[in-house]
Structures are given as structure tokens and as C-alpha cells.
Amino acid sequence: MDQYTLNLLIVGASFALYVGIAIWARAGTTAEFYAANRGVNPVLNGMATAADWMSAASFISMAGLIATVGYGNSTYLMGWTGGYVLLALLLAPYLRKFGKYTVPQFIGDRFYSQGARLTAVVCLIVISVTYVIGQMTGAGVAFSRFLEVNVSTGLWIASAVVFCYAVLGGMKGITYTQVAQYIVLIIAYTIPAIFISLQLTGNPIPWFGLFGTHTESALPLLQKLDQVVTDLGFNAYTAQGSMLNMTLFTLSLMIGTAGLPHVIIRFFTVPKVSDARWSAGWALVFIALLYLTAPAVGAMARLNIISTIYPGGTQQEAVLYDERPDWMRNWEVTGLLQFEDKNGDGRIQYYNDGAAGFTDTATQRGWTGNELTINNDILVLANPEIAQLPGWVIALIAAGGLAAALSTAAGLLLAISSAISHDLIKDFLKPDISEKSELLAARIAMAGAILVATLLGLNPPGFAAQTVALAFGLAAATIFPALMMGIFSKRINSVGATLGMIVGLVVTCLYLFTYLGWFFVAGTNMLENVPANYIFGIPPTAFGPIGALLNFATAYIVSMMTQAPPKHVQDLVESIRVPRGAGQATGH
């Protein structure tokens, strides 16, 4: 059986499973559409949360960025994992005890203001649309390769699939679909990693193989990798970058995680307050299975790519383009891998032509520039092909990559549709709307969000993980401070919270748009996105904590200068925090 047919069979079977589950668990009421009728077991919710969380950024793009940069991009792992600890300890149980469906609903009630709620809706939509761009980008990459179409066509196919099961099932359908997707994606991620770790180190456990010995050279794997990348003018794989940026970026991902609306709403689906905390704990367990494997996948993918381009070693001639391996031919079709023979010798020169200290070496070897451009988002998906693994493994990782992208996209789209139908239409524009009409509005809003995300995903502001990191910065600067102050401070009032969110959103968006284009439209940026132009050297992806600090400061200063919240609101804050009654969540 050829690879294309195998891809269609395995990916098609997984899609049939997802759509079947969505039909079986179809939401018939708004309670089922928004919160799965609050009946999800915490272990299943932890698994669904992990699938919701381990998006295209985690599955497809994160290991690619780690492969390209090395140690410096381990911040993705530290920030995302640390964020779940914050979420479990500081937010999830308290928000579940409050007993409502959405984040803007909590903010509107806690800050006794429709203006605060509307501001939260705007923030949620901006965050979720930015995030879903990254998911659709990743799904487009996966579809483009395994259906052998260009990336734009792959993106439209991904949109159609998400539309079929997310619009139909709501939170109830999405929850059980995500459980299935988690099982698919974790198997798809670990099996190739085990094969490749055995090939390179003889150790079947990738976590240990990363720090093991490279079988062919008898050197430690990371030492061998440092050697080959520095031979080609790249920074050492294990080298550290700017500690300030690493700290800010890690913090941005941590507090951004704790403020992501599509993750928070998962904790509204469990029966009890204690289940919310257990759900977060189980989610960390399920997430750890992939996150412990990702650094090994990234490192081994980088070594495998260089080995296929320089089969005799980095000091020898590169492979002839006409003799390039099949995996390169396959990925060239997508446009995500490109070759340009700059010196006309017919060989593929892959090196860092931007390294000033490597210029003399490149000149001596007759190189006139890097000739191979590899999109970071393809590395994980291409890894089994590079390692020449069996066809079923290649098809399995295709199904896993698509499961990761589509599961998170569905969660994000639900957060957007809930904000529009429940917070904007039902509680702001048309309070007397019927349940049937509200459910229809939610589905129309979700369909519109899919269309917008697809159009923006055709020209994304970065690789999947980089685009997602921007969403984390926005969540860190807007939603997280409002939730923290809403739960742990009786003194923050509606004016302070609303102005804080506006300041965090506006300042962070302006910083992002300055370097990435207005509303992420390519070519509209005011400054080139290079380190020399950054304020204090802070890149757009690490600006979230600065926005959060401005949010906190604005809210506190304004609240101290204006009237304290009413007594009943202060009592509400106290009731949320006190453990009494934690067995049963209550609505306020």
C-alpha cells in the first residue's frame, strides 16, 4: 500500500471517530453546549484539557523551535508547564465555585459592571482569535503534506473538518472528542520518538536517550549535536541566550496559561469544586508525557536533518540536489521546504549564512549563501520520514498532528462562540433571547470565527508556536490580572479592573502590531521585527508580563482613588475564597 493511501486510511479513521463522537454527544441545550452539563469526570476532564492544551504549537511547532534554537527555547516547556500549576492553585477551584459558564460572566458579576464584562469579551475574542490562527496554521501544514496539497488548500480542509464537529457538538461533544484526540496524539508522538531514540542512542526511552550516547560517534548525543551545528556556523545547541528575555518569556507563558479562556472554561464542566483542582492535576500528568518527550524529539530531528544533508559529516560535501532524499521531495510540494542553488554546484548547502564569524569558512568552501529553507513547523511531522520509519508510523503522526491542532481549535472556537452568544447577545444585547435562538447564535458565531481564523492563518505572524505565544502574552496582560484581583482583592473596583484590562490590551496590542503588522496583516508593521528595534531588547513574544504589570498598576491606582466595591460584592469575594461549601459549587 502506498503512503498516500495509508495516510488517508489512518487520518480518515480518526476523523470518522471524532465526528461520530460529536454526533453521539451532540449538545441539545445551552448547558450542554457551554459546560457539558457539568457532568465530566475529573480524570476524563484532565485528559480533555491536555488535548485542548497540547495544540499544534505543542505537537507540531514546539519541538521544531527547540530543534532550531536549542536550550533557549526550553522556555516554552517551562512556561506552559508552570502555568498549569498557577491555574490549579490560584484560579480553577475558585472560578468553579463561582458556578458560571464563562470568564466574562465572572468578571462582569465580580466587578458589578456590564462594561467590565464587555471589555473581557473583547479581550477574550482577541486572545482566542490570535491563538486559533496558530492552530489553523499547524493544521494546514499537516494537511498539506499528508494530502499532498499546498498549505493554503490544507488550511481550508482543516477549517471544514473543525466546522463539522465543533459547531455540532459544543462543549459536550468537544470534551469526549478531545479524550479520543488525546489518545491519538500521545500515541502518535511517542511511538516515532521511541523508534528514533533507539536508532540514534540504542535507548528506547527518549527522555534518557537525549542525555545518552550517540551510537555512531560514541559521543554524548548533545555534544555531537553541538559539534555539527557549530561546524555549520550555528550557535551551540546547549548555549543559553539572554536571561532577561528567557525570564520574561517564561513568565509570559506561565501567567498567560493561567489566563487563557479556552482552558479556564474546561474547569466549569466538572461536578464539584474539588474536581476542578483534580482536573488540573490530571492534566499535568497527561501533558508531561508529551512535554518530557519534546526536547528529545527536537534534538534528534535536528541531528537527523543535518546527517541527511551531509551524509559524510559536516566537513564533507553536501548531498547533490538530484540525489536528495524522498522526504525533501515530499515536503517541497507543500512549499514549506525550498531549495535555491546559489553557487550553481548542484549541492544543498545548509548553514548559517548570517554568522559573521563563519564567512571565511563559507568562502573557502565555495558557498555563497544558505540554500535550504526549512519551515520549523514541519520538523516533527517530517521526522519519521527523515528517519525512514515504516509507513504506518508516518501516517500515525499525521493523525496525531491533526488531532492536536483540531482539538485546541475546537476549544478556542467554543470560547469565542460562548463569549458572543452568552455574554454579548444574551446578557448584553438581547436578554430575552430563547435558549434555541441562543444555541443557534453560538453556532453561527463559531462558524464566523472559523472563517476569520482561516483567512488570517493564510498569512500568519509567525510559526505556530510563535503565534500562540503572542496569544499567551495577550492573556497575561488582560485576563489573568483581572481574575487574580477579582478573586484575591476585595478593594479592586469595576472602574479599576476595566481600565486595567483596557490598558493591558491596548499597550500589548500596539507593541505586537508595531513589529508584526496591524492585526497581524503582513506588510503593515511600523518597525522591522529584529532585536535591534525592540524596546530594551524585549521581543513581542515576551511582552506579556509588561502588559500585566501595567494592568495591575492601573487597576490598583484607579481603585484606590475611587469608591470601594459594594458590601455584597466584597462578601461575594469572601465566599469564593473560603473553603466552606467546597463540596458543591454554587451560582451567584
Automatic annotation (TrEMBL):
The chain crosses the membrane at residues 6-25, 46-71, 77-95, 115-133, 153-170, 182-200, 248-268, 280-301, 392-420, 440-458, 464-487, 499-522, 534-558. Keywords: Cell membrane, Ion transport, Membrane, Sodium, Sodium transport, Symport, Transmembrane, Transmembrane helix, Transport. CDD domains: SLC5sbd_u4. It is a multi-pass membrane protein. Its main location: membrane. It is found in: Membrane. Belongs to the sodium:solute symporter (SSF) (TC 2.A.21) family. This is Cation acetate symporter. It comes from Rhizobium rhizophilum.
